[in-house]
Amino acid sequence: MSTGQWAVVLGASSGTGAAIALEVARSREFNVFGVHRGRYLEQAQRVEQDVAATGRRIVMHRGDAAIPEGVAQGADALLAAAGPRSVKLFVHSLASGSVGHFVSGGEEQFHPKQVERTFNAMAHSFLYWIQALVARDLLAPQARLLGLTNPLTESLLHNTGLITAAKAALEIYVRHLALELGPKGHRVNLLKFGTVMTPALQHVYSPEALAKLEAAHARMNPSGRMCTVEEVARFVSVLVGEDVDWFNGATIDFTGGMTLRLLDLVLNAPR
Ligand SMILES: NC(=O)c1ccc[n+]([C@@H]2O[C@H](COP(=O)([O-])OP(=O)(O)OC[C@H]3O[C@@H](n4cnc5c(N)ncnc54)[C@H](OP(=O)(O)O)[C@@H]3O)[C@@H](O)[C@H]2O)c1
């Protein structure tokens, strides 16, 4: 068991979660309890080294954070490492969902198993973890609990309906948990941001497709560029501050205006 405050980051081995783990260790001096399943081992080791280099403790727990049994194991390991009332920040940064269609009739049509897995990873696990943290008295006074989302609940992308439905459920979990935990001094919010370049994206897309993606975001975003994981991570660190503790049950828009000009782009696209 250790002294000091802890950040629990689900999905700490890659992308947004990795950046948040490092940022809050550096700027908030939190120890980090990260969870992942081990698909990005090199990146996980880098996060461990980088956080350790800040002088903070890091425990990287390997397990399935999306199912109740995995949550119980993870929360028990967290209790052993961190002790009661130690978790100041909890961030749900799991990304694991199926793309496809609801009624295509073909192979792309979502199977109930895909629906269940996507909702477990992208929505229900947020609830399961918070239940587990509360049951073990792990939350520090005035803890900050954060879900992450994207602008796809407003402007739809044809094959991401299942993930977006899970994000809608996540938003409602956030609001209800804010109601239930607010009187105890805790804050539960949802941070919405636009596309950021992550190793997962770089793995999935070819360099040409990535260049196209970047160019499209440069046209969409009023700033003329894509957001970065470091920018998101720095803002998460801001959200831990006492000055912003009036945010509760909020969906905080950190999209940089990503969808503001979509209609303009469609109506005025060169033919
Ligand atoms: N990337 C974007 O452009 C973007 C934009 C807005 C919002 N977001 C949101 O930000 C969050 C993180 O996205 P990202 O793109 O940064 O993700 P990412 O780079 O793909 O990383 C996902 C992380 O989750 C872990 N993970 C996935 N399923 C898991 C499970 N069942 N149990 C334990 N660990 C699991 C992965 O490790 P393992 O696979 O090894 O388990 C990895 O550490 C998501 O909620 C996403 O919707 C992302």
Question: Going across the major beta sheet, what is the strand order?
Answer: 3-2-1-4-5-6-7
CATH class: Alpha Beta
Number of alpha- plus pi-helical segments: 9
Q: So, CATH architecture?
A: 3-Layer(aba) Sandwich
List the bound ligands: NADP nicotinamide-adenine-dinucleotide phosphate
- Give me the Rg, rounded: 19 Å
Main sheet record: 7 strands, parallel
Mean pLDDT: 96
Report the β-strand fraction as a percent range.
Answer: 15-25%
CATH superfamily: NAD(P)-binding Rossmann-like Domain
Secondary-structure content class:
alpha/beta
Describe the structure.
With 271 residues, the protein is of the alpha/beta class. It has one domain: Rossmann fold, CATH 3.40.50. The chain has nine helices and seven strands. A seven-stranded parallel beta sheet has the order 3-2-1-4-5-6-7, with helices on both faces. Strand 5, helix 5 (161-181) and strand 6 form a beta-alpha-beta unit. Helix 1 runs parallel beside helix 2 (41-53). The radius of gyration is 19 Å and the shape is globular. Pfam families: adh_short_C2. Keywords: Oxidoreductase. Belongs to the short-chain dehydrogenases/reductases (SDR) family.
